[in-house]
Design a protein that fits this description.
alpha+beta; two-stranded antiparallel sheet; 13 helices
Length: 293
């Protein structure tokens, strides 16, 4: 289909979703790293209006805006379709993608940076938005059904970024939610202990002395840390209503993709965990994100 180039930055999930789509489609491409503080002639040439990344260049023709690029990729390379075939399902996927980019991203960012009484309200609003997305995946392996699709790529940033924003913003939004959902799904009664990430408790430091992070599941006197590890522990300890599929191949596929989102992307893309350790720096990063879409 001709040469493919991606003008992007490794510091944006808007760009990462395009990389994921190209990899799923098996499309070879040239990655051109863009310095958003010193925009290159190639970016200004291919996106003179918005001057933002990502920009997909195919046959020297630029396509901009990450959601538009995902649909272009899907329509150009037919293997491993991203959007569902049914028109209503396609419309629903587009709706939730727009909801995520306009409502969830803004809501989580507001919760991260808010102070005082406004922070609690912002966290509630962010959790409400995330709950809407959670309902879209209930009873399914992926948002796309049996296979990863368009909406999975759009929302793939959530497990990675929220963990960092929770640390920076002194809040929790997702990691513990995974565990709570699994416990409720299994019908397990549990005690919920609220943790202040800005003033970590003795119990947390005792239960997870290495990483000093939540969530931690205490079963008897045994602590289990890391959300994906906890989910498998829950599934193996309480056999009712299994979380993982029985088929070994399908089980490994689920593990592969969850690890890819939560871990591999972190090693490939040194995002704000390394480059933005403090809230002031995170605010500077937010300004840079104005150059990304």
């Amino acid at each position: 289909m001709g040469g493919v180039k991606l003008v992007a930055t490794t510091q944006s999930f808007f760009c990462t979703r395009v990389q994921w789509a190209l990899k799923l489609k098996g499309v070879e491409y040239e990655f051109i790293e863009e310095d958003l503080r010193n925009k290159s002639p190639i970016l200004l040439k291919y996106n003179p209006v918005h001057k933002k990344v990502p920009v997909l260049v195919h046959h020297d023709t630029p396509i901009v805006e990450s959601l538009v690029i995902l649909e272009y990729i899907d329509e150009t390379w037919k293997e491993n379709p991203l959007l569902p075939q049914d028109p209503f399902d396609r419309a629903a996927a587009r709706f939730w993608a727009k909801f995520a980019d306009e409502k969830v991203v803004f809501g989580v960012w507001t919760a991260c940076t808010a102070e005082g009484e406004g922070k609690e309200k912002a966290i509630e609003a962010a959790l409400e938005s995330l709950a809407h997305l959670e309902r879209q995946i209930e009873g399914k392996k992926f948002f796309g059904g049996e296979q990863i699709g368009y909406l999975d790529l759009v929302l793939g940033w959530i497990p990675h970024w929220l963990n960092t924003m929770e640390e920076v913003g002194g809040m929790k939004l997702l990691e513990a939610e995974r565990i709570e959902w699994a416990l409720k799904h299994k019908g397990i009664t549990y005690e919920y202990i609220e943790e202040d990430l800005r003033n970590k408790s003795t119990l947390l430091l005792k239960s997870n002395p290495v990483q000093k992070k939540i969530p931690v599941l205490l079963h008897g006197d045994k602590p289990v840390a890391e959300s994906l590890v906890i989910l498998e522990y829950i599934d193996e300890t309480w056999r009712e209503k299994p979380l993982l599929p029985d088929d070994p191949f399908e089980k490994e596929m689920v593990r592969f993709w969850t690890k890819y989102v939560d871990e591999k992307r972190f090693t490939e893309i040194p995002m704000i965990k390394e480059s933005i350790p403090m809230k002031e720096d995170l605010l500077n990063y937010s300004r840079a994100q104005q150059n990304v879409k």
